[in-house]
Amino acid sequence: MTVIADGFAGQYSSGELPAADHVRYEAIEQRQQQIADFLAQRRMDALLLQHPANFAWFTCGGDSSRRGLGEPAAALFITPEARVLVCGNTETDQLFDIELPGLGFQLKERPWYEPKSVLISDLCRGRRVASDSGFEGTLDVSSELATFRVQLSDIECDRMRTLGKAVAHALEATARGLEPGRTEAEIAGEISHRLLKHQTQPVRIQVIGDRRGARYRHWSYSQQAVCRGAVLSAIGSRWGLSVSASRTVWFGRPDADLLQAHQHAAMVEATCMYFSQMGWQHAETFERIRRIYEKFGHPDEWRLADQGCILGYRGCEFPVLPHSRQMLLPQTAVDWHPSVGPAHAGDTILVTSEGFELLTPCEYWPTIEVAVKDSPISCPGIYCRGQ
After folding, report:
1. Strands 241-251 and 308-311
2. 154-385 architecture in CATH?
3. Which pLDDT band holds residue 44 (cuts at 50, 70, 90)?
């Protein structure tokens, strides 16, 4: 049978037709209205989206990135009345069948050997166009689009919960099976493998072995063997969304100074989570963080590395800065990752009207209970292999 769907004709059997996702369709309709209102306020005719993060946001999870290649496979051209997919002919089937099935998109395509930019130029000609790239003199509104991406819908919150459990599982399952002598790169590969098995794309992997984190706060991984223990961290992405977590594993019993540093890092993390309160400015939360560092004898530790960031469709949408007046909005995800010397903590939370929700809970992992304002908060402890 021949099916005409979203401007595309293709050959399908009835069993191959993708099921309609009405929840996702409604979410995209709401985003189109949001864009229509935005265009009206700016007196613009259309919005051009070329960055994969914005493609994923508008389509509520569609992927235009060709799984990590630098050049996106498609763009979106959005007007108040229509949403148009712009791509080459080799991408059309996969995009409509897998990424955008039955979601109301029209199609403008060119042969693969002709530059997509020519087609985009034709669409922009004679129109007042905003964009996320400043393409050919269009109005760059990328900063405004970032604010759209960070306040999550209900469907996005549910996806973040699923993603958070997958990221925590990959780290913890890898750590539970570690033996001394494996290289940081081998361990990073295992974390990546576990993420990919759950359709989660590794965005960033860190394996900081044998206390190297005291000197290198943003270490990734190397060919050096891990002999005593390591901090494992990952940012994973699925449906375009990102979640981050960290876990520490040690062979035998850690030294007293590492245990204390980890305890202090957990206290800072609990403080970060508790004071991530809806309507607070980042600076208000950061002031509590600074005080807890000072209380436990680390007054300058926060200056050595960033402490947290707002997550959405990028690994870091906005950093949490000491003097930022940006407010924490409801249904916003925050990645907190404080550190004290060689000890690193890290989890992702969701800011809600009732407080915070932990998106990366421990699965089979020791925890440290920290009381903040008489509220008990569980943070990941150190997993001791061999004990």
Report:
1. unpaired
2. Alpha-Beta Complex (3.90)
3. very high
Average pLDDT over residues 294-303: 96
Say which residue the tokens 């590969």 belong to. 189
* C-beta of residue 202 within 8 angstroms of C-beta of residue 191: yes
What ranges do the domains of the chain cover? 2-150, 154-385
Looking up tokens 């407080």, which residue turns up? 355
Q: Would you say the pTM of this structure is higher than 0.85?
A: yes
Question: Topology of 2-150 in CATH?
Answer: Creatine Amidinohydrolase; Chain A, domain 1 (3.40.350)
* Pairwise CA distance, residues 248 & 167, whole Å: 14
